[in-house]
Amino acid sequence: MAALDVAGLRKNYVGAEVVAGLSFAVPAGTCFGLLGPNGAGKTTTLRLCLGLTAPDAGAITLNGHAIPADAQAARARVGVVPQFDNLDPDFTCAENLLVFGRYFGLADADIRARIPALLEFAGLTGKADARLATLSGGMKRRLTLARSLVNDPDIVFLDEPTTGLDPQARHLIWERLKQLKSAGKTLILTTHFMDEAERLCDALIVIDRGRKITEGSPRDLIAGHIEPQVIEVFDEGCGRLPEFTENHRRLAERVETSGETAFFYCREPHPLLAALADADGLRYVHRAASLEDVFIKLTGRELRD
Asked: Is a pLDDT exceeding 90 seen at residue 165?
């Protein structure tokens, strides 16, 4: 049985369809990603799956429970890391965990027994009595992750869990999420960091304007949509990039330009690298194709607000 099964999900707001017939299934014990630009419908989809918003059409089964009819029973075995921290600033770290655990009907003694392990998991050992005002942004984010585990959930929803964090904090949260998956938890993740999805997700969908546009594992999506090698060429202010791009376009399977950068997508990069070795006024980066290349190809390079 899938941890989450979604079929034909639809939701309209003020005449605009923000979720347009989404269908996907999340096997238990895996990390599943929902990717998409701003306004794609990711957060609305999470709210629908949790029974916090009523769908206009479609069927949702979460942990064996029909949503939204049986949402309360389903959420008893679910943890949520919201997009924005909503910790109580008047409470200490331990008090935030204690009060949240009471929402699940847990006895205070049981919650207190879990608090040391939860704080250790979040890298907050010794911070039980610390007030929120004394914590860094990364510490608060890790406390929010610990809070989502207070009821020992089977499934954890994570809405952009590392936004605004420095690289060290991001890597620590990635490590902790991998530990959760190794322990058999199911993770459902939205993120704007393609490297995060590539590292963590067993499978994912890319949605845009409420519609699913592709689905698969990160590795399969990269292999199926993008040439294996990418050379990014930057103009150093000499204005030579347009001429170079036009003259060497034939050396790549596909070329995209964005501002002062040209992206050459290649199967055989060596002829283009040789040409760049003799080019003045240009810099370049040669790298393997990534999930970000897939995302940009499918959703476009234009800015979304």
From this structure: no
